[in-house]
UniProtKB/TrEMBL annotation:
Matching Gene3D superfamilies: HUPs
Matches recorded under SUPFAM superfamilies: Adenine nucleotide alpha hydrolases-like (SSF52402)
Domain UspA: 1-147
InterPro entries according to UniProt: Rossmann-like_a/b/a_fold, Universal_stress_UspA, UspA
PANTHER family in the cross-refs: STRESS RESPONSE PROTEIN NHAX, UNIVERSAL STRESS PROTEIN UP12
Name this polypeptide is given: Nucleotide-binding universal stress protein, UspA family
Family to which the UniProt record says this protein belongs: Belongs to the universal stress protein A family.
Amino acid sequence: MYDNILIPTDGSEAAQNAVAQAVDLAEQYDATVHALYVVDVDATNLTLGTEQVDRIRQGRIDEMPEVKAEADDATGYVADAAAARGVSVEEHVTAGSPSRAIRNFVESNDIDLVVMGSHGRSGLSRVVLGSVAEKVLRRTRVPVLVVDLHEADE
């Protein structure tokens, strides 16, 4: 049923909450987990400047130790959780708009299921900030399991 499961991660607590669900499903279906970190070029442009963003867009993340370390930490968390359960994992880093980059990855890599965390924002904060999880859910053609950050608290 599921051969390739994508876990988009930014290293946040919300993303980490989704990892256990994804790894459990991958173990049950003998699937490969794909950990994807997306360098958000819009957010990065504000903090790093256009020269750094150009490096990111060209795939030269290795030249940016802080960005590379953040990406490695985020995907490494997923890789460690998967390895602990004997699940095959691949780590990926890309740049762009997070929701678009996730959708492109799904289409280009034969992904069967996306498992991702959500901060569970509602009301005005959701309208102002947008929701990557919602955009992925609405615009992809594969099942998307959204794990709410606040579910772990209940």
